[in-house]
């Protein structure tokens, strides 16, 4: 039947007066319908929602990566691997991974196993691999992840430390290793070891991932601050300059100088001894100075000698210890001139051994009152 339709269509096309055009189109439609069947359309969004746990919005964005599939077999194989005994990802972890990096569903079994073996060969446990996938799915799917793992684990010394730092910077695991190695070389030239650089990167991963020109500028600012490179404090100066813009540093220095009534040179010397104070917010600095000077009655000269007091917590340290100081003074157990800044800078254990435990017989409720004060509850 189909052969006869095609022959008639060919004859009509050759002679084709206008009166026969409608018949020609009808036969063409019939022949096409008889000679082919409609392809099956794969419902990509439905698969992502029903099988992978994505929301409708997430599925709409991710569908383009799997819309070419004819069947769900490829995705099912990937999901079976990810949820299987080798990795054991949960439904929520699968949804997060696919939503962030839907191309993982197109990976071959051989690729997934090679990636898993690479992590294992660098000392990662199954739990650590799952942690990495949760925090950095894009890097997990990169083709050169094995090379990167070799570099980072060697540099930081362990998978655990690498994971801890990579969670703070999603760009660390996928950053340009050429830039990273240049930045490490620049920091080595400052006398910093791999261990010191690694500890600095816990709070400032950008020291490794930024453009080398940026790292050079940070080092220049650190040198200008006046702390010699051979001193341990230089590491803190570099970290501070990496975290704060020049104008931010200048603003905080000005605030502290005005509050303490000291010269620029005096303040610089103070901050050089404890550059971490520059990490405190403007509001924190002002509130601490106000409490110490107006409430406790501390002489600004005392604060200048212990500028690190600014980094201590008002609620959990200063206010409770001020309460203890007042109680002890009222009972004649310490002198009124007791250096409060020194009390604040003590560790919790040492503070209790000096000011709480020795007086438990004279003031039986002092320990409980101090514990309540640390929780924000002060008896009046």
TrEMBL record:
<keyword id="KW-0804">Transcription</keyword>
<dbReference type="Pfam" id="PF02536">
    <property type="entry name" value="mTERF"/>
</dbReference>
<keyword id="KW-0809">Transit peptide</keyword>
<dbReference type="InterPro" id="IPR003690">
    <property type="entry name" value="MTERF"/>
</dbReference>
<keyword id="KW-0806">Transcription termination</keyword>
<dbReference type="GO" id="GO:0006353">
    <property type="term" value="P:DNA-templated transcription termination"/>
</dbReference>
<dbReference type="InterPro" id="IPR038538">
    <property type="entry name" value="MTERF_sf"/>
</dbReference>
<protein>
    <recommendedName>
        <fullName>Mitochondrial transcription termination factor family protein</fullName>
    </recommendedName>
</protein>
<comment type="similarity">
    <text>Belongs to the mTERF family.</text>
</comment>
<dbReference type="GO" id="GO:0003676">
    <property type="term" value="F:nucleic acid binding"/>
</dbReference>
<keyword id="KW-0805">Transcription regulation</keyword>
């Amino acid at each position: 039947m189909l052969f006869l339709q095609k022959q008639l269509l060919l004859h009509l096309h050759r002679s084709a007066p206008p009166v026969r055009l409608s018949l020609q189109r009808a036969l063409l439609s019939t022949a096409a319908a008889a000679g082919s069947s409609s392809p099956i359309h794969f419902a990509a969004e439905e698969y992502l929602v029903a099988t992978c746990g994505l929301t409708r919005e997430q599925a709409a964005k991710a569908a383009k990566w799997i819309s070419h599939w004819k069947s769900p077999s490829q995705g099912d194989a990937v999901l079976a691997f990810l949820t299987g005994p080798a990795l054991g990802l949960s439904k929520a972890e699968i949804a997060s991974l696919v939503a962030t990096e839907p191309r993982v569903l197109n990976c071959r079994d051989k690729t997934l196993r090679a990636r898993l073996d690479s992590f294992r060969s660098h000392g990662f446990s199954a739990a650590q691999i799952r942690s990495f996938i949760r925090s950095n799915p894009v890097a997990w799917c990169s083709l050169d992840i094995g090379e990167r793992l070799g570099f980072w684990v060697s540099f930081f010394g362990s998978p655990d430390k690498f994971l801890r730092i990579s969670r703070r910077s999603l760009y660390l695991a996928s950053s340009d290793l050429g830039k990273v190695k240049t930045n490490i070389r620049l920091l080595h030239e400052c006398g910093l070891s791999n261990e010191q650089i690694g500890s600095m990167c816990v709070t400032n991963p950008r020291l490794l991932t930024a453009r080398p020109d940026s790292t050079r500028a940070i080092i220049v600012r650190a040198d200008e601050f006046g702390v010699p490179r051979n001193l341990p404090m230089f590491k803190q100066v570099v970290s501070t300059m990496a975290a704060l813009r020049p104008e931010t540093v200048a603003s905080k220095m000005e605030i502290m100088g005005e509050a303490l009534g000291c010269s620029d040179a005096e303040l610089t010397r103070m901050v050089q001894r404890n550059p971490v104070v520059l990490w405190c917010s403007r509001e924190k600095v002002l509130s601490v100075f106000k409490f110490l000077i107006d409430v406790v009655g501390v002489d600004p000269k005392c604060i200048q000698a212990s500028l690190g007091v600014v980094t201590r917590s008002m609620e959990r340290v200063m206010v409770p210890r001020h309460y203890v100081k007042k109680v002890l003074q009222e009972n004649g157990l310490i002198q009124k001139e007791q250096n409060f800044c020194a009390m604040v800078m003590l560790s919790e254990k040492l503070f209790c051994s000096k000011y709480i435990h020795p007086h438990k017989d004279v003031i039986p409720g002092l320990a409980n009152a101090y514990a309540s004060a640390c929780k924000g509850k002060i008896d009046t």
